[in-house]
Amino acid sequence: MTYVYPVISRRAGGVSIGINLNPNNACNWRCIYCQVPDLKRGTAPAIDLIKLEQELRTFLHELVYGHFMQKRVPAEARIIKDIALSGNGEPTSAREFEQVIEMIGRVKADFPLPKELKLVLITNGSLINRAHVQKGLLRMAGLNGEIWFKLDSVTPAGRLRINSTRANLQRMRENLQTAASLCPTWLQTCVFKLNSVHPNTAETDAYTNFVGTLLQEGTRIQGVLLYTLARPALQPEAPALSKADPVWMETFADKIRALGIPVKIAV
Predict the structure, then answer these.
(1) Contact assessment for residue 85 and residue 19, using Cβ atoms and an 8 Å cutoff
(2) How many helices (H) and strands (E) does the chain have?
(3) Are 119 and 146 in contact (CB under 8 A)?
(4) Is 15 helix (H, G, I), strand (E, B) or coil?
(5) In degrees rounded to 5, what are phi and psi of residue 198?
(6) Residue 152 pLDDT > 80
(7) In the prediction, which pLDDT does 12 show?
(8) What is the DSSP letter of 43?
């Protein structure tokens, strides 16, 4: 398929239906831990909405009425957990983003899916100031939607080093506030060792100070999804990257929890 793909996760306890709006492997950022091969700078191509809907309906029909679950999925994971907009680039760069969300809602209504099924947007948040993206996020909120907003660093040097972006921190703050006002929003933060060294205290203190300020200002953050590398990166920096130590991650998580918000760790 061009747009739709399954992810079977024992840790999540089910099947995630991935929707890739960037089959051209183009993104406006270039995170050094990215696992997309031949990643290039750019935006999503024009989306064939008819083809996307056909693929989603076909795969949902196979999951619900066919033999995919029995043949491909461990018994303990035979439940559909979410539909996730992620893929090989920044999904909100698709001009058809709002129409995609509307279509997903229509298709969901035609299948007997779990009531708790989530619609997840995994985003770097850089384009949330666009009106059509905000309309899509409002639609997501009515579909048990959830935004995972990438926040790997709040320092200019850290964002440039990790995400290869000079994105303005104030714009990031404003986009995050907008996202959280439209749809339940989690911060998604990847931590790892670079040249065998964890992020330094200046980085982690800046992060917790930033999150603390957001909370004081009334931004409704659901919590933080703190994770480390699961598979090898496919970027030039890959040899310098390694997983963060679980003890270090737990210590960092405790600093964030002290702000009064939940932290989920994936190692």
Answers:
(1) yes
(2) 8, 12
(3) yes
(4) strand
(5) -70, 165
(6) yes
(7) 63
(8) -
Query: In whole angstroms, what separates CA 23 from the centre of its chain?
Result: 16
Query: Stretch 33-61: mean pLDDT, rounded?
Result: 96
Residue keyed to tokens 């957001």: 214
> Is beta strand 241-243 parallel, antiparallel or unpaired with respect to 221-227?
unpaired
Q: Which two tokens stand for residue 8?
A: 């079977």
Give the separation between CA 6 and CA 21, rounded to whole angstroms: 14
DSSP state of 191: -
Q: List phi, psi (to 5°) of 45.
A: -75, 175
**What's the CA gap between 160 and 144, in Å, rounded?**
33
Over residues 209-252, the pLDDT tens digits come to 999 999 999 999 999 999 999 889 999 999 999 999 999 999 99
The pTM of the full predicted model, rounded to 2 decimals, is 0.95
Task: Return the DSSP state at 60.
Answer: H
